[in-house]
Design brief:
Chain lengths: 832, 306
């Protein structure tokens, strides 16, 4: 037990100041509030509403399928229903829900005032809310996508789906993915840099580990689907033939890109839920998790393995047998980390007789359903079995067992578990048993028969089926089960509406849990930031809650007079500096609404209003960024003899970390583009030109020279900044922009004779030029921002975060562009 | 009349591949049941609080690492060693090119030199106990060929050709269905595979090869040429459209509408008059403008296309 950092009684006005600083704005200005707890609660609630909406779609489908040859619903609507059900459940419910739980719970669980980029979370949330609702409403006007949540071309190409329905998916989901990435950046940097002092990585709650793995997976998986949707939209809008087999494209390229995202996606959903289970189980048996290290290892291992098994969604596409064997092995291997977690929970439950609370019931239901789903998953990983079961109701059963079992049941358990930390009342334990019972029985009645239905020959995604093949009774039973499940969910909603009261005093630590989210808290999170010495600090120090609340730990007030967070070292959680956050303003909200409007208007091909909205969104982002690099003030004493700076630049600053994560997103997307180029070459090498037909070598040499000089100019700007020569700084920055844009311009001009519509090859060449152009434009914007700030005296040798961020991104862009030049100009010469 | 009884279940296998997969299914299901029971017994023991000794990392290692590693390695070896899908080497007894269309199947029988023998639709006849190669292609979007009682599925992909060998172990009628979502009435894209004794198959094949003999029904034939020939072919007549199924010898088939309606006069009349009601979104327009007598003539003409 270490000595308290601030043992003396605190001045009485300190708490008042803290409360005033973190108070929610009133009236309409509540929309400007970015505190993670506030945004997190809205985020969870919104995701839950989408769960209900997509569930209603499922009930309509189950009604249609209750009897054979039913003509209640025509295929056109049915196809929209199952496409929306899958898409909404995956993109508007599951991913946002777990991300939202992270945003909501992590600050308190880590002992942070707030995560480092709360305004980014707010932006992600509002864009998701507006975009998601409009996207959902498309079904009411018959404009919902019909291509399935996997959107396979060529069915989704302009030729076979000429309406705007599929654009709705491509553009609507496109920015929800951006929103997910924004949240992931926040979670990665938050988990690594805002943990309470003493909370080493080895003492971090399992849920935080799960969210860290989740966010890292989002960073590497989502860019592949963003690229894929971009390619398909380019094909639809401008007939660039990436997926058109008649012109050197290949529909299987889409499947590779989609499932490279799509398989990690299911673990992206499952891992946070597994993290929730690892929080609930120890509490209910009042014992630390058995095998903590193994469980953490299993989470991380699942993250890695999940990127190596996407082809198991493509076993029936005619892929060579040896590849199938590799992916079958990888798919089976992923059950090892799942097994580790299951046995860790069982071992922990064995330690002492567990309390059979509602969260425990949901954990038990999860264990039953998820283990069964895992076993059918192993069966599906056996390639010959998949030849039969693929795209049948067996797979529908399997995926609902792993996703509803693996994610929805833990989520309900987590809601019952954590609501006392957020509401005046806990939910009713008595009603909770009914909720669980209806959901568990309903689920199994609905989905267990589908294993048999599928093996008996019924394919999935069918709006009706023939009578007399042994499917009639099974389908009727499934429909009944679906409604029982829905009754359980409805009962939860009723109990939630009756008992959830977020304002005022909280029910508190009703379960006797040991982690920090159960400390008494306000909008500012904890009154003072504790020192953590174990996995369950509340169990090990009964005085902790009182000492935290009386301000005896770190940073008991707001020494800089504004909202602030304590940034700590990534490995051991040593205090490093105070991150100051501007008070709430409208910029994230405006940026989000107009980002959503940009994408939605593009769907309807309203180009001019869309661009106008895009400009407003970017303007709002720049205004938002303007406030993020405040002038340094004096270092502050946070207690325990520790004085920390209130400004940080360079590799220790959180913004530097965020830009590094962003470059990882970009690199991942670029990697997917390089893969696509090489993949199309393997499929249609005949469309690759002879070296003689390529643009002369002079073009790439000139382009490469110019972009390298842009990097040199930026480095020169760095030296001018350190030397305090503002004139040189501005000149160097301006020349960097000119050089970069000129270099990319040369590359675009190099291919003027080649029409992107000519072939998959030609489309790829123009894609790389377009990517280079997009990145150059972003760099130009960042650099111009920097120039304006420098000209107005807001960039100097100390106050330099804006400059550092731009520099990092420009150097990255130059490296990426050089790689692209090498590929586009070098590869055909080498391969030809 | 209704459609003849047909098998569409992987649980009642009648093909060599389906039978091998069925064995694998039984083995894996039994294994899964055992694992499920063991895990649930452990959970129940934990709930009773009767085995605190289980709360050890060694249980996690044994149950989560060692056990799955051993079982899965064995399963992987088993699935790799066990032959399920027939290899493509060796000459098949019959070669068929199957082209997927939204929402029907074009069936092209090839001769020994891979040249076209004749074309039919939505029905494949094969000799029982013979090795049949099905070459899978698509004319538009993705489809998947799946006749569960005979074999696992394989996709039809634009720009590619996939090959599948199937062998029916005994004569019978097996139903298959498109298993890769292909838009619109994907649910109503079925086909029948009829496995016959070798002599019957030979006779059928010889008959199919012949051009259509002109039947009676002059008026029906004229109406067919006027309204149907833009999309449908009847070999031996001037009807040579290619958008829809080839209707040569259509009266010899089991079903119409791609495996969804029995092939009788009443069904044909319904289909021609209102196929958009029966199979919404399919690419054939309704011919509701035909007066009843004309419709009847067309139906009767089609009945003569034996």
């Amino acid at each position: 037990m270490s000595a308290l950092p601030n043992p003396a009684p605190r001045p009485p006005e300190e708490l008042k100041q803290l409360e005033r600083i973190w108070a929610f704005p009133r009236g309409w200005r509540i929309l400007t509030e970015y505190n993670n707890t506030f945004i997190g609660a809205l985020y969870v609630a919104t995701a839950f509403v989408f769960f209900l909406l997509a569930g209603v779609l499922a009930l309509i489908m189950r009604t249609q399928l209750a009897v054979p040859e039913n003509d209640l619903i025509k295929p056109e609507l049915y196809n929209q229903l199952f496409t929306m059900h899958g898409t909404v459940m995956m993109f508007l419910f599951a991913v946002p829900a777990v991300e939202a739980m992270g945003v909501l719970m992590l600050p308190n669980m880590l002992g942070a005032r707030d995560l480092p980029f709360p305004r980014l979370s707010a932006y992600a949330y509002w864009a998701y809310l507006v975009g998601g609702l409009v996207f959902f409403c498309s079904i009411f006007v018959g404009l919902a996508p019909t291509g399935g949540w996997f959107m396979n071309p060529p069915l989704t190409s302009a030729r076979y789906s000429p309406g705007v329905n599929e654009d709705m998916w491509l553009l609507g989901i496109g920015f929800i993915e951006i929103s997910a990435i924004a949240g992931a950046v926040e979670i990665i940097v938050g988990v690594l840099r805002t943990r309470a002092p003493g909370m080493t990585l080895g003492r971090m709650p399992v849920f935080a580990w799960a969210m860290l793995t989740f966010a890292a997976m989002v960073v590497f998986a989502f860019p592949a689907v963003i690229l894929a949707t971009t390619l398909l939209e380019l094909e639809r809008a401008f007939t660039w033939p990436f997926f058109d087999a008649t012109r050197g494209g290949d529909p299987l390229l889409w499947q590779h890109l989609f499932w490279f995202f799509g398989h990690p996606e299911v673990y992206i959903i499952f891992l946070p839920a597994a993290g929730m289970v690892s929080m609930i189980v120890p509490t209910m048996v009042r014992t630390p998790l058995v095998g903590y290290r193994l469980v953490v290892l299993a989470l991380v291992a699942t993250g890695f393995l999940s990127f190596g098994l996407w082809v198991h969604h493509m076993f029936t596409t005619g892929i060579p047998r040896l590849s199938l064997a590799f992916f079958a092995a990888a798919s089976m291997a992923v059950s090892v980390p799942a097994g580790i977690q299951v046995f860790a929970w069982i071992a922990t439950l064995s330690a002492r007789k567990p309390r059979l609370t509602t969260p425990t019931l949901f954990v038990l239901g999860f264990l039953f359903i998820f283990v069964l789903g895992g076993l059918t998953g192993v069966m599906l990983a056996a390639v010959p079995f998949d030849f039969q079961a693929h795209d049948t109701y067996f797979v529908v059963a399997h995926l609902h067992y792993v996703l509803v079992g693996g994610m929805v049941f833990p989520l309900f358990g987590a809601l019952y578990y954590w609501i006392p930390a957020l509401s005046r009342n806990a939910l009713s334990e008595r009603v909770g048993r009914w909720v669980f019972g209806l959901m568990f029985v309903g689920f199994n009645v609905a989905f267990f028969p589908m294993h048999i239905t599928g093996l008996a020959g019924m394919p999935r995604r069918v709006h009706t089926y023939a009578a007399g093949y042994g499917w009639d009774m099974l389908n009727m039973v499934s429909t009944v089960g679906a409604f029982v499940f829905a009754a359980g969910v409805a009962l939860f909603v009723v109990d939630f509406a009756r008992r959830f009261r977020p304002a005022g005093e909280k029910a508190g630590n009703v379960w006797g849990a040991g982690t920090l989210e159960w400390l008494p808290s306000g909008h500012y999170s904890n009154r003072s930031i504790p020192i953590v010495g174990s996995h369950q600090p509340l169990w090990d120090d009964p005085e902790l809650a009182r000492n935290v609340e009386e301000g005896h730990y770190y940073l008991p007030g707001a020494p800089t007079g504004g909202r602030e967070a304590l940034v700590t070292a990534p490995l051991d959680g040593k205090p490093q500096y105070i991150l100051r956050m501007p008070p709430p303003d409208w910029t994230p909200f405006v940026a989000a609404v107009f980002t959503a409007a940009f994408f939605l208007l593009l769907t309807g091909k309203f180009v001019v209003p869309a661009v106008a909205c895009g400009v407003v969104a970017i303007g709002a982002m720049l205004a938002w960024a303007w406030a993020l690099d405040p002038a340094p003030v004096a270092p502050v004493d946070i207690g325990g003899g520790i004085t920390v700076p209130t400004y940080m630049s360079g590799p220790q600053s959180t913004s530097w970390w965020a830009v590094v994560v962003l470059t990882m997103v970009a690199a991942s997307m670029y990697g997917a583009a390089v893969f696509s180029y090489l993949y199309l070459w393997t499929v249609a090498p005949r469309t690759w030109p002879d070296a003689a037909l390529l643009p002369s070598v002079g073009y790439p040499v000139a382009a490469a020279t110019l972009v390298v000089l842009a990097s040199v100019a930026f480095s020169a700007a760095g030296r001018a900044l350190e030397a305090g020569r503002r004139g040189w700084l501005l000149a160097a920055l301006a020349s960097a922009v000119v050089l970069l844009v000129a270099g990319v311009g040369v590359e675009v001009a190099a291919h003027h004779a080649l029409s992107p519509r000519a072939s998959g090859y030609a489309a790829m060449v123009h894609l790389f030029a377009a990517i280079a152009g997009f990145f150059a434009a972003v760099c130009a914007l960042l650099t111009l921002f920097c120039i304006v700030r420098a000209a107005s005296g807001q960039v100097d040798a100390v106050r330099r975060v804006s400059f550092d961020n731009a520099r990092l991104f420009v150097h990255y862009t130059v490296a990426q562009t050089l790689l692209g030049l090498l590929l586009v100009h070098g590869f055909p010469r080498m391969a030809g | 009349m209704s459609l003849p009884p047909a098998q569409q279940s992987a649980l009642a296998p009648h093909g060599t591949e389906a039978a091998a997969i069925h064995d694998l299914t039984l083995v894996m299901t039994a294994g899964a049941v055992v694992v499920m029971v063991v895990v649930m017994v452990l959970v129940v023991m934990a709930l009773r609080g009767s085995r605190p000794g289980l709360a050890r990392t060694s249980l996690v290692v044994a149950g989560g690492v060692v056990f799955p590693a051993v079982v899965l390695a064995a399963l992987l070896v088993y699935t790799q060693v066990k032959e399920t899908r027939a290899a493509l080497g060796g000459k098949p007894d019959v070669t068929i090119e199957l082209v997927g269309h939204q929402w029907w199947w074009q069936v092209r029988y090839l001769d020994g030199e891979d040249a076209l023998d004749f074309t039919t639709a939505n029905e494949i006849r094969i000799p029982a106990r013979a090795s049949v190669e099905v070459r899978l292609k698509s004319a538009d979007v993705l489809h998947s060929f799946w006749v569960p009682a005979l074999a696992g599925k394989l996709d039809l992909i634009p720009g590619r050709e996939n090959r599948l060998r199937i062998t029916a172990q005994k004569a019978g009628t097996y139903r298959g269905q498109c298993a890769e979502y292909c838009g619109g009435p994907h649910a109503q894209m079925a086909l029948f595979v009829v496995a016959q004794e070798a002599d019957d198959f030979k006779a059928w094949r010889a008959a199919q090869r012949q051009p259509q003999q002109a039947g009676g029904q002059v008026r029906g034939a004229a109406l067919f040429l006027e309204h149907c020939a833009g999309c449908h072919t009847v070999r031996g007549t001037r009807a040579a459209g290619t958008r829809g199924p080839d209707l040569t010898h259509v009266a010899s088939r089991i079903s119409i509408g791609a495996g969804i309606l029995p092939n009788d006069a009443a069904s044909i009349a319904r289909w021609v008059g209102a196929s958009q009601h029966i199979k919404p979104g399919n690419l054939m327009p309704d011919f509701g403008m035909l007066d009843p007598a004309s419709l009847q003539a067309v139906v009767e003409y089609m009945g003569t296309l034996r």
